[in-house]
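Hi,

I'm pasting everything inline rather than attaching a file, because the server keeps stripping attachments. The sequence lines come first, and each chain or strand is labelled.
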Amino acid sequence: MNLTLHVWRQPAAGAAGKFERYEARDVSPEMSFLEMLDVVNEGLIAAGQAPIAFDHDCREGICGMCGMMISGAAHGPMKMTTTCQLHMRSFKDGDELWLEPWRARAFTVVRDLVVDRSAFDRIIQAGGFVSVNTGSPQDANAIPIGKQEADEAMDAAACIGCGACVAACPNGSASLFTAAKISHLGLLPQGQPERYRRALRMVAQMDLEHFGGCTLFGECQEACPKGISIDFIARMNRDYLRAAATAREERAVGGTG
Amino acid sequence: MRWLVELYRSTIGKKIIMAVTGLIGIAFVFLHMVGNLQVFIGQNKFDAYAALLHGPLAELLWVARAVLIAAVLLHVLMAWQLTRRARAARPVDYRMREAQVSTLASRTMRWGGVLLLVFIVFHILHFTVGAIDPAGVFHDTDALGRHDIYGDVVASFRIWWVSGFYLLAMAFLGLHLFHGAWSSLRTLGVARPSDHPLHRRIAAAVAIAVWLGFTLVPLGVIAGIVH
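And the predicted assembly:
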């Protein structure tokens, strides 16, 4: 099959970008979307042009590196699928595709279709962890966890941080990502000691990174390759409200040594 | 009090203010709609209801008005701030972005909200203050010497552009509530987890009831049932 691609080309972060038109010839329907781009890139390199830059790593749908807007849909037309796991059989001969990077103030374009998602890392650094001494692991069943809670926590933990939620959100909000990261720890016993401080800090960092607010369009849930539910956003708001209303000011307690 | 300031400054805090003020609005429009339906009982009942609100219940009415004015101002201010924030969050827009699951209601919250604000101002100047008096009957009294709001309703809705504007505004109110009644509870974190979080039977029922209840009045006048 033959396709026409309109690809966002931008040489560097601050530089001006524009769409370039490329023809992808003899594309096999068995190729993944990224393999199709690899073939286009080989043609560009052979012609002495700069290849299209795009993020990728595992190419098996679990690392969260890949992702682009494909004709107006984050990760393309297939539900619960990352760009690398999208195959060309989802398209038909003669299709014209528009490839754009995730667009958000917090996600600056590094080059072409590659964006800088370190804003997500800073949200995690603000509280997406449990403070425990590492060492030899304790027995797996030492802390009983209900099946329901374990399942819900795993549903939230499925987030791979790809950024599709932000990309698909008309408000450019990172609420689904932040909610998933707050919830997967907040649902488990190990996450309880820092549960409310975590909610306060991660939401504060999310706001600092200039993401928009959530108006529950629901687009994030649809775009999420891991199918994370907007129910977690309600849960984040509940934790955040409770935290804001009950948290004590942090201060040094005990002796000064 | 620092927690309150921090809550106000966060996006979630602003959404919580929008949700609470919106729920106040929903409670109000529901009562208002039920009150309006008394127009179908007749002139005597409707004018007596108006006289009751403005006579014995006048102090209570002013408390309600104060709460509603504060709610509308906060709702609009938060919407303004959050809209600006959302615009700033995506300085370079997509060449192509297709809405996948968002409802028409959710996508018309902002411009529909502006229309509703214009409508609220018009509506107060029309039926409450009488500064806009398209039928020229605002100062008329009924047989018992009461303010004849029934006559004003009938005469106003016989004017095509008045009833047209009211019908349009109520359609947008229905859309606004279809998203707002559902999303406000999720914003407040009180919605139950669901396998289909975008489904909303209760919000749909609220939106249809309010839209239909308000719409029946001008339609009743146009159809000649209320005369």
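Residues 20 and 184 of chain B are 7 Å apart (CA to CA).

If the labels don't parse on your end, tell me and I'll reformat.
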